[in-house]
Design goal:
Strand content: under 5%
Number of helices: 11
Helix content: 55-70%
Order of helices and strands: HEEHHHHHHHHHH
Strand order of the largest sheet: 1-2
Radius of gyration: 24 Å
Shape: elongated
Amino acid sequence: LHKFMAGCTETVFSMKGSTELYIPDEEIEDVVLAAKDKDLVQRLESALIHWTRQIKEVVSNQENSVRDENAGPLDEVNFWRSRGLDLSGIRNQLDRDGINRIVAVLENAQSSYLQPFKKLSNLIQQGSVEAQDNVKFLPTPQPSCEELAQAEPKDIPKILPDLLNCIRMIWGVSRFYNTAERLTGLLRKVSNEIINRCSAQIDLGEIFDGDVEASVSRL
């Protein structure tokens, strides 16, 4: 793998924090002829295996960034914005001529490593469409979410109606945020933010010293 990475000369996507698929420096003019070169096929399979691992990691980490028990709705917005950039970056790379030629060679060589790669590539395509759609709608409640993230407990009831109406709109028009799982996850993050804002007003030192009334008053 280290030899393969050392021979890679083309970085096809270089945005900071994004997944980069490296293309090995191999001259492939005739894919049918190249498929008969066992040494070349093995080198290309090494590249394909590395891509598969990279893409699998992205797919398997789809929800990790928003499963934090303390995550708020702004974390959801930022997660899908970041995920949309990463997935669209990978999708654009998968359309590059260098990758397509390697895939064509391995198809002619009937490589057993090709099927898992193609399956994950399809998931990337689907995930990219979902992320882009979510990014269209999730910024709608962002102003209310930013207000909520700075609010004192007494101000929260004024913020919630507009925020919940925005979430209701998303539920009604989004292609991917109209499921119980997605909607429940977003509402849970709103609840987390409310808890966080209330917790910030509680002084445990005061409470343990016997002064409960001050925290009760602030809440």
